[in-house]
Design goal:
Layout: H1 2-16, H2 21-45
Helix pairs in contact: 1-2
Length: 49
């Protein structure tokens, strides 16, 4: 799911840039992924020794 959101955000940023409503939404989606989702995914994937 997040991969699709990030792909759509990248497409919007490439087509429209970071200015405008869609660009701001894309930047927010990327920031949420980097701050919240990615650390939790790494936490789940690391081995528990």
């Amino acid at each position: 799911m997040w991969l699709g959101i990030l792909a759509a955000a990248l497409l919007v940023l490439l087509l429209f840039g970071a200015v405008g409503m869609l660009g701001i939404i894309a930047v927010v989606a990327v920031c949420v992924y980097l701050v919240d989702v990615r650390p939790r995914v790494e936490e789940v994937q690391k081995p528990r020794w």
